Amino acid sequence: MPRQNYLFTSESVSEGHPDKVCDRVSDTVVDAYLAAMPEARVACETLATTNRVVIAGEVRGPASIDNDRIVDLARGAIRDIGYEQDGFHWQTADIAVYLHAQSADIAQGVDASGNKDEGAGDQGMMFGFACDETPDLMPAPIFYAHKILEDLARARKGKVNGAGALGPDAKSQVTVRYAGGKPVGVTQIVLSTQHFDEALTSDDIRAIVEPYIRKTLPEGWITNETVWHVNPTGKFVIGGPDGDCGLTGRKIIVDTYGGAAPHGGGAFSGKDPTKVDRSAAYAARYLAKNVVAAGLARRCSIQVAYAIGVAKPLSIYADLYDTGEVAEERLEAVLMEIMDLSPRGIRTHLSLNRPIYARTSAYGHFGRQPDADGGFSWERTDLAESLRSALS
């Protein structure tokens, strides 16, 4: 029997966090290639430190996307995040590009040829998860940790109600209290945010951010017993890559479910959708979300596994955490029937060969609203009725 009464904590980081700056740059490069050639191959890693950005990896795409174009894209991404500081400025940062052609040895295993379908770009296992704790079927701690920072970023960029004093770099952490297996309140709130005025104290920052946090969290979740930690170290002026080196793909738990569900270990950002680290994790979330949306379970985890160069998944595993209305073995069989989980099948079903990835680089890849242009297509619940029918 799962525990019913407990505390669980998840964290999020803002788009200005050093690692997220790198995710944004890498995904901006992915989008540029996919916009020019939907079948492009990209594996792009970014490093950022004091006034320096290094972009490296493997690509296969049009020559029109040269190093000068990539440098311009990186500067535009950094400017949109909001970095105009002496130690990290979109105009003056030294940006070096070391992208080269994709390995022919990898390409021969991944590309379709003759009777061979397109294979997975690497081995590995990917997980998807959904639960009924929030309207977007995400675990409550990570959902609200993301939302706090997203709302603050919007206010910062709009210079609303004092939020213009905040900088791009920020972190949040929310400890949620569960009673009877359901989230009912917040016991601890942690918010650390960069600011430009050295004279601002932790109390000053709390006065700016607290109204946004209270508006974000459900009514009644914050009580007199809730403990606040706002800029607990005091001054936070030096931030972003000037304060801490950033790397692509270093926030995989922030990107997924905040530790509330398993993770296969592969990062998402900087990878085109032939890489199953990304596309199969999206597909697994899509299936898990549709299982919960169909009312077949209150919690659902899906694992799929692949071998490099092999199209068909090696296995699929479903865990309904003793909340299911159907047998998990039957559900696994139906999921394999209802969606083609080969790399090509996933990309086709979810229309992933589009420039839709820069927007995923902060505030989570899951628990977002599907966009009209196909962004976050894995958040749709259009399989729910088919699943109910197949399992009735």
Describe what you observe in this structure:
The chain has 392 residues and is α+β, with helices and mostly antiparallel strands. It is 32% helix and 24% strand. The chain is flat. The longest helix is centred in the first third of the chain and has 19 residues, at 18-36. The mean pLDDT is 95. β2 and β3 (52-60) form a beta hairpin. The strands form four sheets. It has a four-stranded mixed sheet with strand order 1-8-9-10. Strands 6-3-2-11 form a four-stranded mixed sheet, with helices on one face. A three-stranded antiparallel sheet has the order 7-12-13. α7 crosses α9 (343-350) and α8 (328-338) packs across α10.
